[in-house]
Structure formats: C-alpha cells, structure tokens
Amino acid sequence: MAPTSTPQTPFGRVLTAMVTPFTADGALDLDGAQQLAAHLVDAGNDGLVVSGTTGESPTTSDAEKAQLVKAVVEAVGDRAHVVAGAGTNDTAHSIELATAAEKAGAHGLLAVTPYYSKPPQEGLYRHFTAIADATELPVMLYDIPGRSGVPINTETLVRLAEHPRIVANKDAKGDLGRASWAIATSGLAWYSGDDMLNLPLLSVGAIGFVSVVGHVVTPELRALLDAHLSGDVAKATEIHQKLLPVFTGMFRTQGVITTKAALARLGHPAGPLRLPLVELAPEELDQLTHDLAHSGVHL
Known about the structure:
It is found in: Cytoplasm. The chain is α/β, with parallel strands linked by helices. It has helices spanning 30-42, 62-76, 91-104, 121-134, 145-148, 154-160, 176-186, 198-203, 214-229, 233-242, 244-249, 255-266, 282-293; strands at 14-17, 47-50, 81-85, 108-112, 139-143, 166-171, 189-192, 208-211. The protein has an 8-stranded parallel beta barrel with strand order 1-2-3-4-5-6-7-8, surrounded by 5 helices.
C-alpha cells in the first residue's frame, strides 16, 4: 500500500518527476530505476512520477512504461506514491496506458494536456474525464501549455474537479494570477510543476511540488516547504534564493538532459538519452557544474 493520502495532499507534498534510466546500449534499466527510486525516497520524496516528461515518455514503449511502473512500485511502493504518466494526445491510447498502469500497481495517474492537436476546452474536458472513468486511480492533471499548445482554462478545471477521481493539478502554466483563481475555485490539490515558482505557488495555495531538481536537492525542497508550512517566510525565501542557481542551471536546456548529466556525475543510475534528446556538450556540462556549485551541489 502507498502512504496514506488525504484530500489536501493526495500524493504527498514533495514528488520528483523521475528520469528513466537506460543501459549503455539504450535499453530500459529496471535495476537502475529501482536503485534511483530508492535513493530519491531516502532523500525525502513522498512520491515519484514515472513516465512523465522527464521520464522521456515519448520515446518509451507501452510495455516499457508498464515494466517501469511495476519495478518502481516493487522498490518503493510501500513508502512512496508512484504516479504513472498516462496522458497522450490520443484519448483511446491514454486509456490503454491508464489501465496498464493500474494493472502494474500505480497509485495514481498523471494526465497531460493533449499536445499538438490543440483541442477546444470541451475536448479537454471529455479527454480527461474519459481517462478518469477508465480506472479506479486518482488523477493529477498536468497543465503545461508551453509544451501542449493549449491551457486548461480555470472554468474547465472547475468542471473537471467535480469528478471524484480528478483530485490534483500539476501547474506548469507559469501564470500566478490564473493559478490563484483556479486554486480558490476548483478545490484541486495544487502542485507546482515549475521549480522556479515553487515558493510563489505555495504562497497562493499550492500544497507541494512535482519537481525536476528534486533529483539533486530534495532535502532543500523539503526544508523550503517545511519553513513555509511553519510560517517562517524569511527562511523559505532564503532557501528559495539559495536554490536559484539550481533552478536556472537545470533548465538551460531540457531538464532531463541536465538531470541525467548531474546524476551520472553523482554516481546514480541514469544512462544515455534516447533521440531526439542528446547529451550536454562539454561547455554545457561545465556551465551546469558551475551553476550547481553556486548552490552547494558539487558534481
């Protein structure tokens, strides 16, 4: 069983969107995934998102996604929430991924806004509702218009929140005004999906993070959250400012690229990337090393 959920924190508070480790020849590294999952939970994560953007989900097969969920659940499912990415731009395919994730033991689903197709809001509503209807798992929406091309409007979020299994939203919209209104009116558990905005989103009602930089600074993210929850705004701000070089450095290019480079330097499973993603150039790795060192993370 996963750790206890509450309506306020259905997946815990600090989650990392985990990379998918590959072997040197590019195959799925299930042993590495289990080792990395255990390390991240030991570091303080309440949950892990697998097969998300940072998990290179566009380049893993349906079978690999199911194998990955099963392996991570076996490794940490008794002490962390395992949330499986199941969203695509094809509703029928998304339903297939959702049911496979449930069968593999996932504790929840992450459903991204359908990308490329640019559906209207009614299409978004029907798409997410169909995914939520397909299993008994709780669903976290993933609103990231910079990648999908279409935002989930506040009115649509309010409608979707009426579904008993749509319980949370991962916000990578980058709009604090819209977030404020959506948090106030939808009642969804709100997770920051943009590390630079972790603290600002907490200030308007978010309850936690789905982080990329959690691969390297989970204890600091936990400390920031705890300071905020205890009312120590000055301490939370101090930690936020200390982490600014990490937030900047890890997103100078695609986060999975920098994350895998950092993990490899730190001795954790990562492996190569699958095309069209490519490794950092030497000068980019030097820049990442410099950025992280400014926050006390030494590669």
